[in-house]
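Honest question from a wet-lab person: if I give you the sequences of every part of a complex, can you actually get the arrangement of the whole thing, not just the pieces? Trying it with mine:
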Amino acid sequence: EVQLVESGGGLVQPGGSLRLSCTASGFTFSSHDMHWVRQTTGKGLQWVSAIGTSDDPYYSDSVKGRFTISREDAKNSLYLQMNSLTGGDTAVYFCARGRISSWTMDVWGQGTTVTVSS
Amino acid sequence: DIVMTQSPLSLPVTPGEPASISCRSSQSLLHSNGNNYLDWYLQKPGQSPQLLISLGSKRASGVPDRFSGSGSGTDFTLKISRVEAEDVGVYSCMQALHVPITFGQGTRLEIK
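Yes, you can. This is the full assembly:
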């Protein structure tokens, strides 16, 4: 079964850091671009970051310089290092698989919740 | 950035009736290869988003044929031929042509 499982969410103070992980199974992880997408309470989906199969990273302007995406193909894992967190980063974070040769996200994890609050 | 605008934002529908959601992009999503890089996603209550339609009109695996996508360039439409109770949730369009990838605001479909 194709599956993505996120972990690492939690409560963090403003200015703090958190590292999210996403573990993939059931497919050849190294062949797919991977994404992080977040959703704030009651609001729409917001693309956060993506990483290509050649480790090429992409970021939204809202997180550029604060977040770092990475992958470890040997462990079928995707990561998001989040630094200098603010209340605006409070959201459910989903990892998603990119369809081969496309940005289309065809498999999504269940999400992990990040709350930034003092 | 490409801005995605959906309408309506709320859509009450009687079961068995059709439903239609519009999505407009601030720039053309038509690639030189002939594909429109526009996806539709559905997030059912308490669940993660799921892919419904890619490339403007291609149903994802397992998606019922009552769902259809159409359009080209900057104007796209998602249609449900006969709404069922299980179709409730938030429908979002997404442009997959340029980074940053952007989503529409989402349309909440509810059953009357």
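Two things worth pointing out. The longest strand of chain B covers residues 19-25. Chain B is about 0% helix and 50% strand.
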